[in-house]
Amino acid sequence: MMLGETDPCAKRPTKDANLINEVRNNRILKGMIQSIYRPSYQRYTFLILILPLFLACKESIPTDPQQLVDKAIQAHGGKIYDQSRIEFDFRNRHYSRKRIGGEYWFSREWNDTLGVIRDELSNMGFKRHVNNEAVTVSEEWASKYSNSINSVIYFFLLPYRLNDSAVNKEYLGIQKFGDREYSLVQVSFQEEGGGKDFEDVFVYWINNSSFEIDFLAYSYSTDGGGIRFREAMNKKRIGGILFQDYKNYKAQPEDGFELKSLFNKYEKGQLPLLSEIIHENITVEAI
User: Fold this and answer.
1) Mean pLDDT of 257-271
2) Each residue of 70-106: pLDDT tens digit?
3) Which residues, listed in sequence order, are joined to residue 203 by a DSSP beta bridge?
4) Which of 18, 116, 133, 262 has the most CB atoms in a 10 Å sphere around its CB?
């Protein structure tokens, strides 16, 4: 190199050099950069310390059927069920329901060729009125009318009464549907306190994200018996309670009596649609 020439490798003050000097003089920026470029073992230590906290924040899915049912009831309305008078219309009949502690009052009312018919069901038994006048009903028909009222309100308020004393619960595992995951709970009933339909068996698909019941299947023996699969639709929250309508599918005995297997047939479109269960004019009044 000739005298007077500049060494091309010599360091010169540049904008980058000025920026580096500025970072060195700024303790906050310096600390941030050091945390990013700290040795790998330190980063791993940090992850090990923080990972349990992250996992603890993520709610685990219980396998205890009682816990799953409790979460489902809470997701659908919880204590509001017991603090409300609920009314709705179903298939041209107006229904009303109120429960305070162990006392309950159910009613349905509609217009008939005889006039206005009103059925009432409570702890005191069944009563029928026609045009506001009490009429005598045989024990057989009183039982049929009572079961009809109770069935409509039972399904309408699901999963509210899944903690009744006569209910038996069993965990059946997990099924997936697309990107959704469901916990399955089977419900059966003890003969004592289980009502006329104590032999019925239900399976509920509880969404593991929302804990809402999106599907259910059941077998029943009354009125000739049968098997049904229902898909929830038209979800709406009124007065703090989640209400659902349903697509009602019919299953045949050859489809198998293991209710949880019906989900696979539903996925494949192999269950014929029998009807739609639509509830209208729903009101919830605090009591």
Assistant:
1) 88
2) 999 999 999 999 989 999 999 999 999 998 878 899 9
3) 186, 217
4) 262
Say if residue 261 is in the same domain as residue 124: yes
173 and 124 inside one domain: yes
Question: Long-range contacts: 178-182, Cβ < 8 Å, 24+?
Answer: 180/207, 180/208, 180/209, 180/214, 181/61, 181/207, 181/208, 181/209, 182/206, 182/207, 182/208, 182/214, 182/215
Domain that holds residue 268: 65-280
Give the count of beta carbons closer than 10 Å to the beta carbon of residue 286.
Answer: 9
Overall residue count recorded for the chain in this entry: 287
**Does residue 10 form part of some domain?**
no
Q: Are residues 206 and 142 in the same domain?
A: yes
Would you say residue 50 lies in a domain? yes
What count of other Cβ atoms lies within 10 Å of the Cβ of residue 24?
Answer: 10
> Do 22 and 140 lie in a common domain?
no
Q: Are residues 159 and 25 in the same domain?
A: no
Q: Are residues 37 and 144 in the same domain?
A: no
Q: Which two tokens stand for residue 259?
A: 């209710």
Question: Is 98 a domain residue?
Answer: yes
Distance (Å, whole) CA 282 – CA 267: 31
pLDDT tens-digit readout, 181-233: 999 999 999 877 766 667 889 999 999 999 999 999 999 877 777 899 999 99
**Rg of the chain on CA atoms, in Å:** 32
State the pLDDT confidence band at 6, using cuts at 50, 70 and 90: very low
- Taking the C-alpha atoms of residue 249 and residue 209, their distance in angstroms, rounded to an integer, is 25
**Residue 4 maps to a domain:** no
Single-letter residue type at 258 = E
pTM over 0.85: no
